[in-house]
Amino acid sequence: MITTAPVAPSARPLSPVRLRLAPHGALPRRIDGVWWPHSRDLLTQLPEMLAALPSAWGDITGVTVDAAAWSAAPGRMFVANQVVRLHRAPAPPHAPERVVLLSPGIGRWDLLVVPPDTTEGAATVLMASALDDRIPDNGGEARTPRPTAATRPRGRVWPTGRGTRTRR
């Protein structure tokens, strides 16, 4: 079953998408961005977030979310004139919630999800610190790069999806 994302009525003011993406860099990252949705309604929140992504990320055709964290949703949605397949998977225990975005031939991006009921102050700190490349207990010293699979050809999504992200 394919569901079309609802069109926002013109009387309802659009909420800004609360999304922060990692700066472009040569080194691969564990997290490519942070998303703070307004609710757990995937049918309304996902299209808004996908529309806010940079065009360099290509057409997102697959999205994996934590099955327990989001409201029920169909296996596919029609968003921005394309079909987006939704995958619901259990989140690893004791791991922060993530949304994984896939763009065939371009790459994979992992977004940390800040729960919608988080206070604005706490969410602001989480969004800023999640993408910070400084070590807090080391006087703000930059982290040293860890070896990755970045030597593989860029632009392909390998099974681990790590170290293969393409330019943004």
Question: Brief description of this entry?
Answer:
With about 170 residues, the chain is an alpha/beta fold. The chain is built from 2 helices and 8 strands, in the order E-E-E-H-E-E-E-E-E-H.
Strand content: 15-25%
Instruction: Enumerate the strands of the largest sheet in spatial order, edge to edge or round the barrel.
Output: 1-5-6-4-7-8-3-2
Percentage of helical residues?
10-25%
Chain oligomer state: single chain
Q: Overall 3D geometry?
A: globular
Low-confidence stretches: 7-12, 135-168
Biggest sheet architecture: 8 strands, mixed
N-to-C span: 32 Å
Question: pLDDT average, as an integer?
Answer: 75
Number of helices: 2
Alpha-beta classification: alpha/beta
